[in-house]
């Protein structure tokens, strides 16, 4: 979601593993979420 992306913080993004780890406190369902990053982002 665009709102989640706007509030992303660099420490949540793992460029080595290619994953954006969104903490539970930022998610509506209050569960942590891992978003795979595209090749363009890496």
Describe this structure in words.
Keywords: DNA integration, DNA recombination. One of its GO terms (biological process) is DNA integration. This is Integrase. Belongs to the 'phage' integrase family. GO terms for molecular function: DNA binding. With 42 residues, this protein is an alpha+beta fold. The chain has one domain (2-36). The protein is 12% helix and 24% strand. It contains 1 helix and 3 strands; from the N terminus they run H-E-E-E. It has one helix at 2-6, and strands at residues 13-14, 19-22, 33-36. The protein has a 3-stranded antiparallel beta sheet, with no helix packed on it. A hairpin with a 4-residue loop joins strand 1 (13-14) and strand 2 (19-22). The longest helix is centred in the first third of the chain and has 5 residues, at 2-6. The model has no long low-confidence stretch (mean pLDDT 92).
SS-based class? alpha+beta
Task: Compute the number of structural domains.
Answer: 1
Question: Assembly type of the shown chains?
Answer: single chain
- The coarse silhouette is globular
Order of helices and strands: HEEE
Average pLDDT value? 92
Could you tell me the strand content as a percent range?
A: 15-25%
* Spatial sequence of strands, sheet with the most strands: 1-2-3
Q: How many DSSP helices?
A: 1
Largest sheet: 3 strands, antiparallel
Please give the share of residues in helix. 10-25%
Low-pLDDT stretches = none
* Separation of the first and last Cα atoms: 19 Å
Total strand count, please? 3
C-alpha-based Rg, rounded: 10 Å
